[in-house]
């Protein structure tokens, strides 16, 4: 997989992106809650000591990031509770800290550390049969929000949360939309589109989820070899969305696991295995659903899939699955997850919804981007 990518920077409003820059020698608060002064790095003994270490731990990196309080021309400012203003050493350029943070995550092994340790955990343990999902089922489901030329916000695609900063969806959800539309944000923690917060009274006591979170998109990354929806053979239909801020996890917002351990999949066939899907897409009668639903699918061979899509040139970077019942993902679920429940009881993101002929026709497969083929690409593009 090539390392070159298209990077489409989606700008927030000025208020969203413009940092709050404290003035030199102004008051500030340290990460420990102590009162401090915003000074040059050379004037803060503790910050200097951390930066001068030969090796830096994750805690060192997080601390240096947390105490930054602005810039004085090109010099970095840090919040210090015991500054020494008489220091006369050479000031630390702001780029020094930026390089330190960037270099800390320069190898694939280090970038894997940006993914959550715990993933794929939810409350759902029953069979998935084409039914309304529970309030806290599949908490990694997200909705991609677009803004129309009239300024109206709409949900047009789905996606999957893979960390507190990244979402995986289909490239066509970004590149294949109307030219007058703009991708603006991601909604997490959703269940019923008409209520916020979402509540259910299925049990004796009413249970409610936390309010939904709408998070602006900071950057969109798409493989250079994505062929686009104009091509009959849509390839590398996957996109990585970096959110403008870190998410707050709760019972209705949590990440799904990526299939990073290839040895765990050697005995599992993507051409005959049991898969699961969930989303808010339109039903076969073209009625948009307010609630999240889940569905069961089974993998089919690529030969069968090629017969259904003779011009698509389906290959190893794609998975085909067909619905077990007449319920299946439909328009609006593009970009959403094709999932597998592993023997370790964790849920894994196997595929990203790419395309299909029609919705919910038994025996007619839908095509998904094979996430296992893109894990190196995903990890390579993660940032702190």
TrEMBL record:
Residues 1-22 form the signal peptide. Its EC number is 3.4.21.-. InterPro entries: CLIP (IPR022700), CLIP_sf (IPR038565), Peptidase_S1_PA (IPR009003), Peptidase_S1_PA_chymotrypsin (IPR043504), Peptidase_S1A (IPR001314), Ser/Thr_Proteases_Immune/Dev (IPR051487), Trypsin_dom (IPR001254). It holds the Pfam family Trypsin. It is found in: Secreted. One of its GO terms (molecular function) is serine-type endopeptidase activity. GO terms for biological process: innate immune response; proteolysis. SUPFAM superfamilies: Trypsin-like serine proteases (SSF50494). It is an enzyme of class 3 (hydrolase). Keywords: Disulfide bond, Glycoprotein, Hydrolase, Immunity, Innate immunity, Protease, Secreted, Serine protease, Signal. One of its GO terms (cellular component) is extracellular region. It comes from the Eukaryota. The keyword Repeat does not apply. PANTHER family: TRYPTASE-RELATED (PTHR24256). Belongs to the peptidase S1 family. CLIP subfamily. The clip domain consists of 35-55 residues which are 'knitted' together usually by 3 conserved disulfide bonds forming a clip-like compact structure. This is CLIP domain-containing serine protease. It comes from Anopheles stephensi (Indo-Pakistan malaria mosquito). The lineage of its organism: Eukaryota, Metazoa, Ecdysozoa, Arthropoda, Hexapoda.
